[in-house]
Write a sequence for this structure.
């Protein structure tokens, strides 16, 4: 309900629409026609450089690199050749995969982090995106990576994890899944995004779920209703496919109970039904909830670090991450932008009362800055390493 109120509050400000809210180009066919990984990486990088509206100045090279897909090859080719295709979430960029990508490279994986069509360029490119565009691009990269390695694993965050699940049900060659905050169930309010997106032809503002300054180099802060609807359609497609197809795959999952973006209980339900081995899940929680077998509850209330809870955005990033880490340059405060300008100012100025998931305020935490890194990142890597040793 909070998100819908947020949407209503932004309706009068359609004048904020600017160049970045218009599509650069709707065609994503170049991603499905790439003849090699190198050609794909080059084409995406060129698209990012041409489409971004914020690549002026000394940060330009870093912005282009962070929003472009990347490849990391293992230092040694000894032993079985393992590859992993990494997929970021809705409104995100390949930058989100950097910290985990380096870890898997050190474990001997050939890492390929893709760029979902409509992402990494400008928010307007999500006005005409279709979830099947994501599937087509993913399928092509899967084929290219399979030509380089013996075994392929999939790692995804949020909507990227949902896409990986869909692909694992269609491709019998996939050897395992790594899922972080997967989007397996969407809220009833978010289902309104589809009808609203179709009203965009009557009033352009209806095309947008949220309008923000887009000050984050590596994540859209403005978001289209069409993109939310496409995630919903993809979740429904996974549900239909899973009802008639079963894959018993090794699976590693990490999720936060306090996540406001996805339904973490749906993740627990899904995990409990998985019959592949090995399987392991970390459930970050501020309480002691009941969880299925093979799930480890990790306490997330860390008063000594002024952390109240773990957010949707916190799982993937190391505390040392230059942009999202403990001393990172970005402050995630979008939840206050329209609702409370003074709290937004305090949050951006790092005058918050605590860190955690947005809207998780309390009497002792009136202003909460969204946590953008995982304080227990190294512990999580240890768990992933133990899971890899079981494979």
């Amino acid at each position: 309900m909070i998100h819908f109120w947020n949407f209503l509050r932004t309706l009068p400000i359609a004048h904020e629409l600017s160049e970045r809210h218009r599509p650069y180009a709707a065609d994503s066919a170049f991603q499905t026609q790439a003849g090699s990984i190198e050609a794909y990486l080059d084409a995406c990088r060129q698209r990012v450089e041409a489409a971004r509206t914020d690549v002026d100045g000394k940060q330009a090279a870093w912005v282009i690199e962070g929003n472009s897909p990347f490849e990391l090859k293992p230092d040694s080719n000894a032993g079985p050749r393992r590859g992993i295709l990494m997929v970021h979430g809705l409104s995100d960029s390949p930058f989100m995969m950097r910290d985990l990508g380096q870890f898997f490279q050190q474990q001997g994986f050939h890492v390929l982090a893709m760029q979902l069509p409509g992402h990494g360029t400008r928010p307007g490119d999500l006005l005409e995106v279709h979830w099947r565009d994501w599937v087509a691009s993913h399928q092509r990269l899967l084929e290219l990576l399979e030509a380089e390695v013996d075994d392929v694993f999939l790692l995804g965050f949020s909507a990227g994890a949902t896409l990986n699940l869909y692909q694992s049900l269609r491709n019998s060659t996939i050897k395992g899944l790594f899922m972080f905050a997967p989007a397996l169930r969407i809220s009833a309010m978010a289902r309104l995004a589809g009808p609203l997106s179709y009203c965009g032809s009557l009033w352009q503002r209806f095309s947008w779920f949220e309008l923000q300054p887009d000050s984050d180099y590596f994540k859209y802060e403005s978001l289209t209703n069409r993109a939310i609807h496409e995630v919903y359609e993809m979740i429904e497609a996974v549900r239909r496919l899973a009802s008639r197809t079963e894959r018993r795959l090794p699976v590693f999952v990490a999720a936060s109970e306090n996540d406001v973006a996805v339904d973490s209980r749906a993740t627990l339900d899904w995990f409990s039904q998985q019959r592949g081995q090995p399987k392991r899940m970390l459930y970050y929680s501020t309480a002691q909830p009941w969880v299925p077998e093979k799930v480890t509850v990790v306490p997330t209330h860390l008063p000594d670090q002024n952390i109240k809870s773990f957010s949707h955005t916190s799982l993937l990033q190391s505390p040392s991450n230059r942009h999202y880490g403990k001393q990172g340059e970005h402050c995630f405060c979008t939840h206050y932008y329209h609702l409370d300008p003074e709290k937004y100012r305090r949050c951006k100025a790092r005058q918050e009362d605590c860190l955690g998931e947005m809207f998780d305020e309390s009497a002792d935490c009136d202003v909460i800055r969204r946590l953008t890194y995982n304080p227990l990142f190294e512990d999580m890597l240890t768990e992933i390493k133990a899971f890899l040793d079981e494979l």
Remarks:
- Residues 162 and 201 are 29 Å apart (CA to CA).
- Confidence is low (pLDDT under 50) at residues 1-5.
- The first strand starts at residue 70 and ends at 72.
- The chain is about 35% helix and 15% strand.
